[in-house]
Amino acid sequence: MADVTLRHVDKLYPGGVSAVSDFNLEVRDTEFVVLVGPSGCGKSTTLRMIAGLEEITRGTISIGDRIVNDVPPKDRDIAMVFQNYALYPHMTVYDNMAFGLKLRKFKKAVIRERVMEAAEILGITELLERRPKALSGGQRQRVAVGRAIVRKPKVFLFDEPLSNLDAKMRVQMRVEISRLHNRLDATMIYVTHDQTEAMTMGDRIVVMKDGLIQQVADPITLYDKPANRFVAGFIGTPPMNFFDGTVAADGGLRFVEPTFSLPLPEAWKTVVGPYVGRKMVFGIRPEDVGSAAADRSADAPRFKAKVDVIEPMGSESYVYLSTGSNTFISRVDAHRTVRTGETVEVAVLMAKAHLFDAETETTVV
Predict the structure, then answer these.
(1) What pTM value is reported for the model?
(2) Of the residues 63, 110, 162, 291, which has the fewest C-beta atoms closer than 10 A?
(3) Sign of CA dihedral 181, 184, 189, 193
(4) For 233-289, how does the pLDDT look when each residue is reduced to its tens digit (9 = 90+)?
């Protein structure tokens, strides 16, 4: 396997349209890195540049100790798994998996050994004589992954490989790809728009927006210490709640908005003090606001809100509340007795809260 390094990589399309700007990343040998972000953020373009399917406008891409800017895709020693599987419909599963090796003039015995080994790893040995049209979506995806495995490449690239599967199959394949990474001890770069996939699969996650890296970190760091409001809102299900207001000095620092105010932790004084009188955004995750927050901290500050909608999710419920012009979500135990239309007292776990600069959207605390 090998590490992958991108330094100051740009991608400009005709007309000056920027798809990726000053992209810098080092993927370590055997690491599983996920590129995540909304549609159009540049994540698939970045993956295609690593694969050699898109030319870069500026910068360098290295695989191992070799700069591959001008190296054709077939010579980069990578294997790519596409969203649409890209299987040959007239070939059997065996022949689809063996095709790349046949093109490279591998001996039949080596091809058979590699195909059978990959099929066993993926649990598709009994499917080798079938054609793609006789397979389910999940089985086709396994074949596409198997075709990559037999190559034994330095780097595996995955371009939204699970987006065509149903929810249950996506969860199953997510686990299988993670298990495959552990078994192969391979370098993998995975693109998705689904933050749940990113959080559950990646050793590190690269969050992108408008062609720019917003933050690179492990899943827990992204969740607990987002670099800015975009990352805070994109990572987490349900997403973080945001309230617009100001910081006031009133016998201590407070966050103030039209319908409530909250005392800020004393530990924030040095960092937040310079923002007194300025517009700020208060962020709190659904599990840290509401009855769950009250359970975890008896002295948590409180304000009143109206229950608009309740979504039972089995073991928990999502409660949608409103106060003035603000709407927000609380994640609570499903057995809590809450009724639509009633006014409830909402507790806030301040130790888990965040403040963002309203102008730059960067995290203050």
Answers:
(1) 0.95
(2) 110
(3) negative
(4) 999 999 999 999 999 998 899 999 999 999 999 999 999 999 999 999 999 999 999
- Describe the chain by its helix, strand, coil percentages, rounded to 5: 30, 35, 35
- Tell me which DSSP letter residue 102 carries: H
What letter represents residue 100's amino acid? G
In contact, 120 and 30? CB cutoff 8 Å? no
**Which residues make Cβ contacts (< 8 Å) with residue 179, sequence separation at least 6?**
none
Question: Torsion angle of alpha carbons 79, 81, 87, 88, nearest 10°?
Answer: -30
Q: At what angle do helices 167-184 and 108-122 cross, to 10 degrees?
A: 130
Classified as helix, coil or strand, 283 is: strand
Banded model confidence at residue 159, pLDDT cuts 50, 70, 90: very high
Q: Please, how many CA atoms are within 13 Å of residue 61, restricted to the half-sphere of its CB?
A: 24
Using 50, 70 and 90 to split pLDDT, how confident is the model at 329? Answer: very high
How remote is the C-alpha of 266 from its chain's centroid? 33
- One DSSP character per residue, 53-78 reads SS--SEEEEEETTEE-TTS-GGGS-E
Integer-rounded Cα radius of gyration of the chain: 25
**Calpha distance 38→24 (Å, rounded):** 19
Strands 78-81 and 155-159: parallel
Q: Within a 10 A sphere around the Cβ of 334, how many other Cβ atoms?
A: 11
Which residues contact residue 75 at a Cβ distance below 8 angstroms, ignoring those fewer than 6 apart? none
Output the six-digit token pair for 35: 């590129």
Give the integer Cα–Cα distance in Å for 117 and 119: 5
